[in-house]
Amino acid sequence: MTRDKKLIVGNWKMNLNTHEASLYLHKLSGLVKTHRDVEVVLAPTILALQSLSLQIDRRQFKLAVQNFYWRDHGAYTGEVSAPQLRGVVEYALVGHSERRHIFGETDKDIRNKVQAAIRNDIQPILCIGETTTERVNNETIDTINDQLIGGLTNVTSEELKRITIAYEPVWAIGTGNNAVPADVVKAVKAIRSQIKHLYGVAAADDVRVLYGGSVKADSAADYLAIDGIDGLLVGGASLDAHVFEEIINKAHKGSKPDIKSRGGK
Ligand code: PEP
User: Fold this and answer.
1) Ligand 1: residue whose CA is nearest its atom 7
2) Which residue in 2, 200, 233, 265 has the most C-beta neighbors within 10 A?
3) Average pLDDT over residues 232-259
């Protein structure tokens, strides 16, 4: 894990069927230039992962799973496990607010998923963030701390190097009501300070932290400029190839692309 690259993650949520996902990837690969200082990760529907993993140029894009079950195998009808995803995805979203709040995932589920991902060589992107009520009650920092402690229980310093933290205030996700940079500055400080408390100064400096919540092409640069922010988790705006490409370009420091990508294999 390195902090010299910006990480831009596109979460397609429950949109695009397998065919549409393939067409969209084709369009995106024609548009997006590969930059050495930017890593781009796509999180399509689980159904499309296998086919996209064959279509994708891994120098241009990596894949993430949006969700999985933490047990490795067994009688869990309808579930997909981390060993089944091993080799298909590089990353896994864990603890996304839609999983926590719509599907009732607890910190225990989330820490089990973090462990399962690491055990299976998949890098977890641990999503944390406060609800509107917690924000109004001035509980943002407490929520961040609780969710970090809850999600990282039993994670060693060595394992932490494989984990990315995404700060995603629940009130900002899919609402168009994005956080102002000052809120993100406070949150990222709180995250690094809690990591310092749990793992020490070096870990606090090294851990990758993303912002997510209604990011658009015109707001991306403001978040990327925040000291301590290493990238973006983008939902709705990642479904428009031109907008997503613009966001990726904002993450690239120079104006000229390093390599012109020609698309899928
Ligand atoms: C997300 O899905 O994590 C997200 C941030 O969504 P949106 O950008 O649509 O708010």
Assistant:
1) 235
2) 233
3) 86
